[in-house]
Write a structure and sequence with these properties.
heterodimer, A: alpha/beta, Rossmann fold, 17 helices, globular, B: alpha+beta, 60s Ribosomal Protein L30, Chain: A, Phosphoribosyl-aminoimidazole Synthetase, Chain A, domain 2, four-stranded mixed β-sheet, 22% strand
Chain lengths: 364, 339
């Protein structure tokens, strides 16, 4: 597993930090889209070590955080159906919907189980033929292909008690929405690594071309992020805007064609609701008509009721990069990881959770 | 062959207090542990002691009950012996109480009790009293164990989480995260292949050797649930000091790092069952480390940081890239039932 320690080497990091200090003069606000990057940046204290003219802002790249309450409430309504077993990634459990969370329902006896892959949910469906297993399909382009594969596998094995609530989201359309809003001015974008491993680097071309913003795809170790910042600084200082890859071991410019084929076979783009951003056309993945018998929203008649947003929570502004967690009056007061109000404090990849857990913006 | 052995599974009647229960106790416990205090089968074990007594208890509900590097029996002895050792006590006696879910194969019970015995012999404690209950299927998960233990604290020893002082050094006895990841690797629905084994081990001999070279050890704690991060936070809060550690000095096996990457976990928060953190006066740190390195459970011990006066209650880590960040307590429960 040299792929981990090699990319945490302090001598490599020191060299890259020296390069950044040497080459960077122009003020630059860089957004890391992805929550995984946010965690690395905070975990290794990268923000403090960058020169003052470089500002890092976190973007909407935490799939749990951007899930709107209307969608969370659907998952919760499904969980309340007695014959249903909810299979979900663990992070979803604690996220508060409008009125309750899956964790609270589980404590009351609702059957909610954590899985690490949609394929585990398929096995669960086979082991529980009298129940209906609903997998909560949350994630970006990264997770969508395996969930598409699970649907194809269920079709192949004629499993008729497996369903997916597809809340998948696509990254490029929402970045366009954020840039078009003009709310946040960026000089560089740290493009998501795992998403790009699937879709390649070309889907980011429009950002460099149409908006003149340098883009570099990054990996998730501290040395990856620092390398990415070096490349962004080089583009900023030389007035270029291109799409480059600092994560060559994971990302091919053309992406993973097989994964994209699976995704396209099962899903089609559709509108999706993003927390704090609203409905973005073609930014979600809808299960295609030929596979609609696996679509939980078609199979079950649910009424999630009116969504409710907690007073004072500014997760939406934080997800757009307009505000930071210390701007929120609830942060480290009413809202902590023990008693989270908004999803950005719950998810391990949430911006508020990263600020809190790694001590930024907290007293002392 | 007694009636008890005619059934290869534990039945509710094995916990009834009747004939089957007596046979079970005789066959699985009294014969294996083979000591006069237990063999009397009185309502209490009667022990004569002198000196300062340490008394502790813990319940063990690990799932699965057999895991790489140990089982619930070994864990139940080591865990409680280690709690005694962390107050500087020499473990003396343990109680052993079992809550068994009906249907547990007797062969599994036998294996676990044998491993209780092996661990107790290594620690040097006697199992002097115990209890067995059998509950209906579904009311427990295979087997839960409670052990309580007593130990004697040597006269000149004063160890407490509130004793750390600015300038003290922080020692860690070896790589972190092995136990949590080893158990997790065998979890139903989450199996992955790893070469890791739990670090489950008794630490009383290591502690005795450390105390031999310095009776001035201030704090000892075993970073079990919540991992190293939580233990350091507890010590910082109890002693009203801050603790600064260096990421590069904290040993972690590559296999733990890899599993943590895959599962989105942080080794700092993963449980250990055979590691200790010691806070010691700076001038004694070297000689304590040297004796730790000579003990099989301290071979990879390292000095990971120091105690400071500013920002009391905080744990701060210098990261590999030279920056620093706060290390908070564990929030929530990433790995349920690992001990």
């Amino acid at each position: 597993m040299r792929f981990i320690t090699e990319f945490r080497r302090s001598d490599l990091a020191e060299g890259l930090i020296a390069q950044i200090n040497q080459r960077s003069h122009t003020p630059a606000r860089l957004m890391e889209f992805c929550g995984g990057h946010t965690v690395t940046i905070f975990k290794y204290g990268i923000r403090q070590i960058l020169p003052d003219n470089i500002e890092m802002v976190s973007g909407p790249g935490c799939p749990i955080c951007v899930t709107a309450n209307t969608d969370l409430d659907k998952a919760i309504a499904l969980a309340k159906i007695p014959q249903v077993i909810i299979a979900t990634f663990g992070d979803m459990l604690k996220v508060p919907g409008s009125h309750t969370s899956l964790q609270e329902l589980k404590a009351d006896g609702t059957d909610v189980r954590i899985v690490y892959s949609a394929l585990d949910a398929i096995a669960m469906a086979q082991e529980n033929p009298t129940r209906s297993v609903v997998f909560l399909g949350i994630g970006f382009e990264t997770t969508a292909p395996t969930i598409a594969a699970s649907i194809l596998q269920a079709e192949d094995r004629r499993i008729n008690n497996y369903y997916v609530l597809s809340l998948h989201k696509l990254c490029p359309p929402v970045i366009r929405t954020i840039l078009d809003s003009g709310e946040v001015e960026l000089q560089g974008l740290v493009c998501p690594g795992h998403v790009s491993a699937i879709i390649g680097s070309h889907p980011w071309d429009f950002i460099a071309r149409d908006y003149g913003i340098p883009c570099v795809v990054s990996g998730f170790e501290p040395v990856d992020i620092l390398q990415c910042v070096v490349m962004l600084v080089d583009q900023v200082e030389s007035g270029r805007s291109e799409v480059e890859i600092a994560y060559r071991r994971g990302v091919h410019p053309e992406g993973n064609e097989e994964a994209m084929r699976l995704m396209e076979q099962v899903f089609e783009p559709g509108p999706a609701a993003w927390r704090g951003i609203g409905e973005v056309p073609d930014s979600g993945l809808k299960i295609r008509n030929e596979y609609q018998h696996f679509d939980a929203t078609m199979a079950f008649d649910i009424d999630p009721g009116q969504p409710y947003e907690p007073d004072g929570c500014i997760c939406g502004d934080i997800l757009r990069g307009v505000k930071t967690p210390p701007d929120c009056q609830l942060f480290d007061n009413a809202c902590t990881p023990q008693y989270p109000v908004g999803p950005c404090m719950v998810s391990s990849e949430g911006t508020c959770s990263a600020y809190y857990n790694y001590g930024e913006g907290r007293d002392g | 062959m007694g009636d008890s052995e005619k059934f290869d599974k534990i039945l509710l009647s094995h916990g009834s207090g009747g004939k089957l229960a007596h046979e079970l106790v005789e066959k699985h416990f009294v014969r294996v542990f083979d000591n006069p205090l237990l063999a009397r089968l009185d309502d209490s074990a009667v022990i004569t002691v002198s000196g300062r007594l340490a008394f502790t208890t813990d319940s063990y509900v690990v799932s699965p009950i057999f895991f790489p590097g140990g089982d619930i029996g070994k864990l139940a002895v080591c865990g409680t012996a280690n709690d005694l050792a962390m107050s500087g006590a020499r473990p003396l006696c343990l109680s052993l109480s079992l809550i068994i879910e009906e249907g547990l194969p007797q062969s599994e019970l036998k294996t676990i009790i044998e491993s209780v015995n092996t661990a107790a012999m290594e620690v040097g404690v006697t199992i002097v009293t115990g209890d067995t209950k059998v509950v209906q299927r579904g009311s427990a998960d295979k087997l839960f164990i409670n052990t309580a233990g007593i130990g004697i604290i040597p006269e000149n020893v004063d160890i407490s989480g509130s004793n750390a002082k600015p300038g003290d050094k922080v020692l860690l006895s070896g790589p972190i995260g092995d136990h949590g990841i080893a158990v997790l690797s065998k979890r139903e629905g989450l199996s992955f292949t790893t070469v890791l084994e739990s670090d489950c081990a008794p630490l009383n001999s290591l502690v005795a050797e450390m105390l031999n070279v310095s009776a001035d050890i201030r704090c000892l704690r075993d970073p079990t649930r919540g991992g190293l991060a939580t233990t350091l936070n507890e010590l910082a809060k109890q002693s009203n000091v801050s603790i600064r550690i260096e990421e590069e000095k904290v040993p972690v096996h590559e296999a733990v790092l890899a599993a943590c990457e895959m599962l989105g976990l942080d080794p700092l928060y993963i449980a250990n069952e055979g590691k200790l953190v010691a806070i010691v006066p700076a001038e004694h740190a070297d000689k304590i480390l040297r004796v730790m390195h000579r003990n099989q459970y301290g071979k990879e011990a390292s000095l990971i940081g120091e105690v400071c006066a500013n920002n009391p209650g905080r744990v701060v880590m210098k990261t590999r890239i030279g920056s620093s960040r706060i290390v908070d307590m564990l929030v929530g429960d990433p790995l349920p039932r690992i001990c």
